[in-house]
Amino acid sequence: MIKYRNRTWPYCVLPAMLALLLLIGRAGAQEVKWIQVGPLHNWYMDAGSEPEEGRTGNAGGNEQQDGLRWPALYRWQDTMVGKSLWIGTADYTDPVSNDHYDHKVVAVGPRSQAIDTEFTLMPVEFKLIGRFDHPLVLVDGLVASDLAFTDRLDEVDENLPTDRMIINKVNSAIGITMTRRIYYNSQQNHNNYFIYDYVFKNTGIINRKGTVAQQTLKDVVFFFQYRYGIGHEAWQEGAYPDEVNWGRNVVNDARNESPIDVGPPPIWGEDAPPRCLFSWHGRHSGLPFDNIGGPFMQTDGHLSAQQFVGIITLHADKSGSDHSDDLFQPVTTQFQGADDGTIQYGTGTAAQFNRTEMTSRYLAMTSGHPPAGMRHADLVGDNPANEFGTDAGGYVQAQGFGPYTLAPGDSIHLVLAEGVAGLSREQCYAIGAQWLAGVKGAANNFTMPDGSTTSNPDEYKNAWVFTGRDSLFQTFERAQSMVSTGMNVPQPPPPPKVFEVNSGGDRIALNWANNAEEWDNFRGYKVYRAVGKRDSTHWQEIFRSEKPNIVNEYDDTSAIRGLDYYYYIVSFDDGSTNTVAPGTPLESSLFYTLTSEPASLRRPAKENLNDIVIVPNPFDIRAKKLQFGENAPDRLAFFGLPPVCTIKIFTERGDLVETIEHTDGTGDEFWNSITSSRQVVVSGVYIAHISSPDGRSAVRKFVVIR
């Protein structure tokens, strides 16, 4: 029997579950699906785009930065705020109102909205398909994988070219049906971007009943907005004032919006991939230090806003009948005020009949490219981004494709890739620590990315942060190669279908299925472990099994009693198929087998109550690192317990502060010094009364020093 632990949920599962409950409780709520099988996580909505706060409907809450999480192993790495999709046409006779409109625009986003009550974009199909299902991951017999809750496949297709694909089909009140396919590959050379394949077809379907009202659509434009927000970690951890952490200090840039000349091959204007938009965390005047990269000035200096996030156009049809790539698409690449009334007017049913608002929106969709030197990044320069412009919410990216004439049955094909890149988490800590030492005068010599040195800590930090831009460009180039090969990139062996971790008295036992061994180039397995928390930069390889000595089990005998351990296992090949780094093995994604519940050493139960001891005693908060580690600073342990007992903890004067039911059959139980009223116990003498079902009891005193 598979069991689910009835206690604290993993941090990245709980938001998804709460969101599901919120959506269930909202009439006409939209459906959301996650892709979380690699280091880039994102959610998608059946309405055709992902509006701000659209996943939870928590307007004004702390979910504004929600999605495009990278690197997703760590908390608060979201870089997305919201997106929108607008479809517009000109000279349109509306079959519903029988009125003629100079411009007709239907939309989802940029703000959250009740799609089911608006009837402008109407979901038809929404499926998550996987090349294989996620593994069964068990810790002490309990389901212990986030994917068990978020990776709910509708279909398994062994011929799928990527790990996951979402198919999303949406009709619109304008008579255009959109089908988008979202592809994600967890292979390590391609795991930080999504491919978006759009087909917009003039089907004439204008409502949920399937009514067809065919007409040729003129000057059709497909318009996308991207509101990125980098620095979610600093916001959640309270490192800076809220206004510094997102919005006003985001900087938006565009490169090679169209070719200077067209020939074989195209000649592009700058040293960057063609047709790309990207954003980063810029300077803010509200801080007394340089905040590029979002360093934690008040603690260890680690960087919390190192990401560069953006989107690249890989293909755009020339017309409804000419499906070759138009190098001059998109025709619009603009930055817009996030709270600008032009893009934030009403999105309800009435909006699609409001002539003034639709014309205003259509003009924004067809506004072209900024003049030379007038991109948002150009205008901000090296100045604080929050001092540019007057929009309270900062500025967003936008791009539009068209105008196209679409006769009934005509279609337009667009292919985009969206990625996130930047410094690794380890680099964020190392570079941030060096920067902080320099700011405090404890260091004066810093090595730059090119090997040169500087004595300026800000110059050092910023140069390293901006290597993330180069990494994003490399990501775009890999996405281009991915699409150019028809998604045909080498794949690693699959992960084991089952991964089990079982706590023991003197070891933690791991075992796994052998299905990966059927892979042509399979070479072996690697097991990794983290102590205390899985949101850690201290994952270590603790075991490797390679051909010809393949095994499917391992006993971790180096675990220490009282500490929590998290694990994952990867399958790897012989490196012969790696086209990016030949000879380097391709590995299955750690997210398939990453445990969300801890395992720990548990000694056998004792029958003699005289064996019960409390550790540490006294408990001294000043020695937390010497007790159960800094990730469990308030932990006390009860060792030598009977298999089932009740532990009641009293103050010295007899007030009951907590009752613990020990039922797991081992001799160990742990308490994190939290009372039944959810308060941390204060300094003092405490009494533990331990009673077993057969009527026996024992009393132990312990001291807490805070």
Portion of residues within helices: 10-25%
Mean pLDDT: 90
Cα radius of gyration in angstroms: 28 Å
Overall outline: globular
**Strand tally:** 34
SS strand fraction: 25-35%
**End-to-end distance:** 43 Å
Quaternary assembly: single chain
The tally of domains stands at 3
Low-confidence stretches: 1-28
**How many H/I helices?**
11
Instruction: Give the helix/strand class.
Output: mainly beta
Major beta sheet summary: 9 strands, mixed
- Widest sheet: strand order? 8-5-9-10-11-18-15-14-13
Descriptive terms for the model:
706 residues; mainly beta; Immunoglobulin-like; 3 domains; nine-stranded mixed β-sheet; five-stranded antiparallel β-sheet; 11 helices; 34 strands; disordered N terminus
Can you describe this structure?
This protein is mostly beta strands and 706 residues long. The protein folds into three domains: 14-421, no CATH class; 498-592, Immunoglobulin-like (Sandwich), CATH 2.60.40; 609-705, Immunoglobulin-like (Sandwich), CATH 2.60.40.10. Helices cover 13% and strands 32% of the residues. It has eleven helices and 34 strands. The two termini are 43 Å apart.
